[in-house]
Amino acid sequence: MSRASSLDLLPLLDRSAAALAAVRDEAMLVAAMDDVMTRIVDCEYIGLFFLDRRTVRLRHAFTRGFTEEERRAAELTAMNRHVGEVFRTRTVLYLPDVQVESDPSARVNPRRHPVRSRLTVPVVGRGESVGVISLGNARPAAFSDVQIALVNFVASLAGVVYWNLEDLRALNEQYSLVKTQKEELLDLSAPILEAAPGVLLLPVVGRLDGERCALVAQRLLHTIARRTTRAVVFDLTGMEETDSASIAALIDIFRAARLMGAVCLFSGVTPANARRIVGLDLPLPTDRIYPSVHLALAAALAL
Known about the structure:
Shape: rod-shaped
Number of helices: 10
Radius of gyration: 33 Å
Order of helices and strands: HHEEHHEHEEHEEHEHEHEH
Mean pLDDT: 85
């Protein structure tokens, strides 16, 4: 290759690398591969297979030229054809002149266009085979040395993309799990119990922050709306020391419950939290304050 022609390839290599490096999901991968492969080769069939680690099968991440029936057949038989061989051996397969009638892949997976030349390149990432790029052309000797080198380059980038997508999928799954666990912990940290008909008990355990205050308010007001509630006992015995903003938010919850017709009662206020409440200089929404939840429930039942 001359110096001039090699310099002409630099913008193509740079564009290809930038397009694939920006991929964050499979839709972006399809768009990037469509753009990159259009600039490198002109052939009837292009397929990018990635390993599905859950099924241990090769699946199409990108195709061009396939009908849906051809795509399904190619994916189903991938491991039994040249694609599977290249995946297992990590060896580039270039057949410049293939007679269709003697091509085992053609018998397993017949196509609309007879394939005369094949180029199949392994996709390797983090030291293991993770996919294959498979190209089929109706013309013999359709792929030049430069094109083969470029497809190899794209295959190396595709290996990086594969692990980027796998890492992102694992991260999303972990985030979803953590989010679910956090929601469950929030539910457990502020349970709403029906102590008696018309009397709700809300024990607040642990540290109270803005997120928990919002959850308590939402759940409590919805519960009051659904049930005939005459009294709510807020037991703060298990509540850790908290900041003034959270105390103010809790008092707002008391006020909202009173507006919905429920009498609010305190129990278990610690000395530290009592000092914070007094320091806020806010009028308390209730004068029904009891040292223990037992006395508060007894007062609520007597209403």
